[in-house]
Each structure stands twice: as C-alpha cells, then as structure tokens.
Amino acid sequence: MASPPGSTDTATRPAPPEQIKAVPVRHPGRWVATAIIAVLAAMFVHMLVTNPVFQWDFMLDNMFTPAVLRGARTTLIMTILAMVLGVLLGIVLAVMRLSPNPIVSGSAWTYIWFFRAIPRIVLLFFIANLGALYASYDLGIPFDQQLMDFFGFEADWRFLSLNGNQIFAGFTAGLLGLALSEGAYMAEIVRAGIQSVDPGQAEAASALGLSRGKTMRRIVLPQAMRVIIPPTGNETIAMLKDTSLLIAVPVTTELNFQLRAIGSRTFQIIPMAVASILWYLALTSLLMIGQYFLEKRFSRGVGTRETRAQRAARRARGVGGST
Amino acid sequence: MSEAVPSPFPLSTTPMVRAEAVCKSFGHVDVLKGIDLEVAAGEVVCVIGPSGSGKSTFLRCINHLEKINAGRLWVDGRLVGYRERGGKLHELRDRDVAAQRRDIGMVFQRFNLFPHMTALENVVEAPTQVKGVRKDAARARGVELLERVGLAERVHSYPNQLSGGQQQRVAIARALAMEPKLMLFDEPTSALDPELVGEVLDVMRGLAESGMTMIVVTHEMGFAREVGDTLVFMDDGVIVESGDPRRVLSDPQHARTQAFLSKVL
C-alpha cells in the first residue's frame, strides 16, 4: 500500500472537506432486547447459585476421580479410532461409489443405504449381541463343509476363527459399530468433496501420465479435503457425543457411563449430569481447536493469501510492495 | 514399404502424428467426421476454425483423453490407445495409456494448474511421480524450466497468486518437464486478458524455434502466420483446407475458409 513519496503530497491538494459529524440512528429495540437477556441471565445464575440440588462441591469432588479421567481417555481414544476407521472406510466407499463398474458402485450404495438407515444405538445393541448368533466367527472358503462332505473328507477350510462373545463385546464391539456407521456418513461427505474438484484437474494429471490412483491421491483428494474437512469436524464432534451411546453395548470404561455410575451410586443425579455436560463441552472445545488448524492446513492455495515464509522472502527482496 | 527406392528424406520419415479417417461422436452428435492429417517431427501445425468445429476434440483424441470411434491415430509410429494384434484392436490398459501420454505434453485453455501446489511443485510433480526422477534433480530442472518461461521470481508462488499469463507459462513448463516429443496446445491464450496474450505466445514461439513438434489450436492468426509451418482450417468435423499459413490466410481456396477468415481477420 506504500505510495510513492511526493505524488500525493497534501500541500498540492485543496484542503480536505470537513469530516461528517451526524447523529447516529438510535436503536431502542436493541436496548430492550439487552435488558430482557440480562434479566434472563440473572435468573439463570440465581438458579445455579441458590438451588442446593446442584451440589457444586460434590460435583467438583467427583468429576475428576481416576475412574472418570480414565473414562474421558477412553471416550477420546474411541472417538479418534472410530473416526480414523470411519474416514478410511468412507474414502474407500466414496471411490467405489464413483466407480464406472455398476456392481462396485452398487455395493457401496447398498452399504451406505443400510448403515445410514440404522440408528447407532440399535446397531450397537445388535453388534453387542452377535455372540448369540454364532459362538465362533470363522473366515474361510464359502460352503467348505458341504464341499468336504461331497468329497467325503473330514476337514474344513477356514483360516481364522474368533470367539463371538469376545470380539462382540466391550470396546471392540463399540468401535466396530461406530466405525461401520461413520463410514457410511463419511462416504457421502468424501464423495461430495471429490465431485467438487474441477474435472480439468484429473484431466491435466492424466495428460501428464499420472496413474488413476496417483491422480486421486495426489491431485483430487488434497483438493477435496477443503470441502471434506469442515463437515468431518462436525462428524467428529457428533462422534464424541455418540460415544455416550456405548451404554447399549455396554462399554463400561467410557466417560458418560462412569459419571452416571457415580450419580446412581450416590443418588446425586443432577450434579453428575451437569458434570457430564461440562466434560463434553470441554472435550468438544478441544476438538474445535484441532478442526481450526486442520482447515487452515488444507486451504493452501485458496484465496489470495501468501504464506508467512513467502511474504518474508518478498519483503526481504524488496519486490512487490502490495499484494 | 520397399527399400529399393532410397528415401528422399535422410531423416526418419515416421510422422510424429498420423491421423487416418479419425471419427468421434458424442451420442448422436458427430464431432469429427474423418480427419486425415500428418505432422512431421519438428513441425508446428496451427489449427483454426469456428467454435464447435471439432478442433479441441481432435487435439484431445491425440493423447487419448477422448476415445475415437473410427479411423486410426498414431503418435510417433505407435497406435494411440490400442494395440493391433492378429487384425484385431485391443484396448490398452490404463497403465499403458498413461505411458503413452508421458511423451505428449498438453496445455489447456483454463491452465488446470494444481492449485494446492506451488509453481515449482506443479512442475516437479509428474517427473517425480511418473518417471521416478530424484527430487533434487527434478527441482533443479524445474527451476530451469520456470526460468526458461520467465518465471524465476515466482517459483514458490501458488497458482492463485499468479496472473493468467503467468499461470499458463507455468502450465507450459509443467508439460515440458516430462520432456515430451509432442506438445498440444488447446486454445492456450483464449482465457487470457488481451495484454497477457503476448507473453504466452513468446514462450510458445521460443519452443517452436527450439524444434518442438507442436499442434496449436488457436485464434491467434498472427501467431499462426509467423510461427506455424502449416495451417489447418477445420469446420464441421472435417479439415476443409490446409497448407502454408501465409498462403491459406492471404489466399484461401475454399468458400468456407474465406467466410471464416473474413470474420476474424
């Protein structure tokens, strides 16, 4: 913005006109609204302070017990793991959904349709009880028993055998349910992101000889991230809150379960419910900070901002006074 | 081909591009209706014609961004997009198509730079990712190429910090980084402000002088006259007229060429 010295010298210009001093428009409505809000806020604080049921001391004494802190850690770990798995699954599903092969895109569509239709708490409850469906979950060649019977052999054709009651319980069951469900939502978010990228980008990449996979990974997805990140932040926050649904499994080490357990045990329901609210507020705020930095990272090359390093370099060279 | 008669040309006579009756339709719309063209190595061919005449589509067929429906197209003696075996055409796999495209540089009307990468990163991307060139070697070569197109100062700028002309020059450097045998230009100056056209044409002129084989779809008649070896006029999916640019521009033989040139000159 630096102007060349001398060219706009005040001495050569006529005296500047008098500054405008006008009476601003009054907004009485705003004052009324402010007064109403102030009264409501005072009533709210009055309630918090005077109602003995809140038991603030009790709450503060009990919301940081080792079990609760472990619960907060479990909740955060569960959120992160479920989101990581959900995002990876979502990317795979989104790419499948955009495949020209109708069987591939159709199966992705079916998956998304199924898992978006089921409430998470129902899904979690169902997965937690899969142990009742089969005692053991095996991975192998389909119809192996029938084939072996046909040839008259006494054998099976299975590689991996897991105890149903072990895998579909506690943390694993909860993680599985949340991640499977999240994958379906993320697939749609990622698809929207991929489709938001100008098709000319993929064209330029393939004209340079980049393979399909590299075009997707290095050119399309990084640009799609700008569209994908903000809703993914919302999904992460929603996921943090949905970990409280793990009570349907149940996952007993999780935050909400622990706080409720204290409430039930001591009959101090309200203080521990308030403690839950405060804990989720704090954890969500933490995630919002992370989201801010991620969005900044992936908006490179958008808008006309220079990076700090570039600006410094330009200033040092003394070129381009303004941008 | 018999070897009895010695070739009048001492150099390789394989044309860089050979098109035989190339046809392309989108649904029921026939965009190309039998294009025959030969482009020799080192030749600069400018393609002009009204919009919708199929010039951009033809260009995109040459590096197989569009599949042709009939005819044959060779680049440097190799069939584009197909392999002929036992009298039958087999589609090439994605990997082989990508390999063919390495040797063909393309510059787009809308630049299509990668906005999340700096100018240098744009130039370095394909050599490192496709050819496996070492990063420092690719960067050194990238800086060289950006200097060649006059952008030594803007190596670390993102595309949106560059003017249209600068972006298009980065796009040219990006295509050159793959050391192509053939460069395709799809209306490279049509999206530019008038005062920025010259800088891009200067770079293209330099490239032509260095002996690059170029096919340029353009509306810049001055460039076609001064730099082009051959001018091709296309209309309604066919080549109406072609020849020495000065001759075609000053003395068009065909009525459709005359009508078009009277509007643009």
Question: Main attributes?
Answer:
heterodimer; A: 323 residues; mainly alpha; MetI-like fold; 2 strands; 67% helix; B: 265 residues; alpha/beta; Rossmann fold; six-stranded mixed beta sheet; four-stranded antiparallel beta sheet; 9 helices; 12 strands; globular; disordered N terminus; transmembrane transporter activity (chain A)
Instruction: Describe the main β-sheet of chain A briefly.
Output: 2 strands, antiparallel
Give the end-to-end Cα distance of chain A, rounded to a whole number of Å: 8 Å
Q: Give me the number of helical elements of chain B.
A: 9
Shape of chain A: flat
Distance between the termini of chain B: 43 Å
Helix count from the secondary structure assignment of chain A: 13
User: Which architecture of the domain at 56-129 and 168-299 in chain A does the CATH hierarchy give at level 2?
Assistant: Orthogonal Bundle
Describe the protein's architecture and organization.
The complex is a heterodimer of chains A (323) and B (265). By secondary structure, chain A is mostly helical. Chain A has a domain at 56-129 and 168-299: MetI-like (MetI-like fold, Orthogonal Bundle), CATH 1.10.3720. Chain A is 67% helix and 3% strand. Chain A has 13 helices and two strands. Chain A has helices at residues 28-50, 56-62, 66-97, 102-117, 120-128, 144-151, 164-167, 170-196, 199-207, 212-242, 255-266, 269-297, 308-317, and strands spanning 136-140, 158-163. Residues 319-323 of chain A have low confidence and may be disordered. The N and C termini of chain B lie far apart (43 Å). Chain B has nine helices and twelve strands. The A-B interface holds A 198, 200-201, 203-212, 214, 218-219, 222-223, 300-304, 306, 310, 313, 319, 323 and B 63, 65, 94-95, 98-99, 101-102, 104-106, 108, 110, 112-117, 125-126, 129-130, 153, 156-161, 174-175, 178.
Topology:
The complex is a heterodimer of chains A (323) and B (265).
Chain A (H helix, E strand, L loop, with lengths): L27 H23 L5 H7 L3 H32 L4 H16 L2 H9 L7 E5 L3 H8 L6 E6 H4 L2 H27 L2 H9 L4 H31 L12 H12 L2 H29 L10 H10 L6
Antiparallel strand pairs in A: 1-2
Helix pairs in contact in A: 2-12, 3-4, 3-8, 3-10, 3-11, 4-8, 5-8, 8-10, 9-10, 10-12, 11-12
Chain B lengths: L16 E10 L2 E11 L4 E5 L6 H8 L7 E6 L2 E2 L2 E4 L2 E4 L2 H9 L1 E4 L11 H13 L3 H14 L15 H13 L5 E5 L7 H16 L3 E5 L3 H7 L2 E6 L2 E6 L1 H6 L4 H10 L1
